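Figure 2 data, in text form.
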Amino acid sequence: MTRRERFLAFLNNQPVDRVPVAFFHHFCRPGDFNQGLVNDEAFERNVEGHRLARQVYDPDVAKVMTDTLMLMPVDFSFVEKASDLRKIEPPAMNSKFVAKTIELTKRVREIYADSDAPLYATSFSPFTVMRFGLSDKGMLGNGGDEARFRSLMAEDPDSVAAALDILGERIAELNDALFDQCGVDGIYLAVNNQRLIVPPELHRTHVAPYEIAIIEKANKRSSMNLLHICGGPLAVPSTLEVFKDYPVAAFNWAIEGEKIPLGAGKKILGGKPVFGGFERTGVLDKGTREEVEARVFQILDEAGQIGIMLGDDCTVPTDIDDNRLEWARQAVIKYANQ
């Protein structure tokens, strides 16, 4: 099978010659994150990272890593009470942020011009943009401001929802531009495991609708859109049910945080295709080749090979030897042959 044929079979829960493999890692250090509008050198490192990585490992699925343009910059400094959130203004479509995001995506598209691997645009939930934007530590400084978000949500959840709607509309517009101008195959929407911030009931009524709206708009452009449920310090077990009705083609979640392996998660999510399996750090970046192979076999023994794509929790360590990703792919091929 070609990469694209194999991937489409995965999305349709159809047999494959071997499961596809999707590993992603950042190309910049944290100090460069969100610096693309003010630091041209960081932006170039962001672009060139894709090229250098591909020289070592040619992926089955490619994703634009927007390290230096990660989260949409929005001014929340004037917000004192929840109702102020209704006045936020995301970057305009003629802003430098949008222009640089389109430039980054076009240049990565060129790097993969001779590949049939699907290429995804990374998109972040408006919830994530707001949570980090409210932090006085800066975007991705040391995490979002969960206490402030919880306080505003408790004060006036409708104003929080109104702001999420404003952000979501602009995020969807940007995604449309990436489809139109850059030829991406789909969006990879990153949402948060947020049980420690927003109760499931409030999530369903005041957060989920604005994430689902982004997906539904992207679904008008592509049937290949993916959902990533980010782990990290907020992750707590068993929150997949909150996302099971999101209208995406496949789901990925942090195995380490959720404590739910691929096969079990596939059942929770109604049998939809799922991907992942590796914890962010551990065997893949530290183990021997034999240990990596054994872990691949363990994952596929549990999950099977239908509607399954091998990957990791979120991103593999930035400094990983990309040859290790090929170890995993060769283990997948060996498993299929056996």
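Caption note: The two ends are 17 Å apart (CA to CA).
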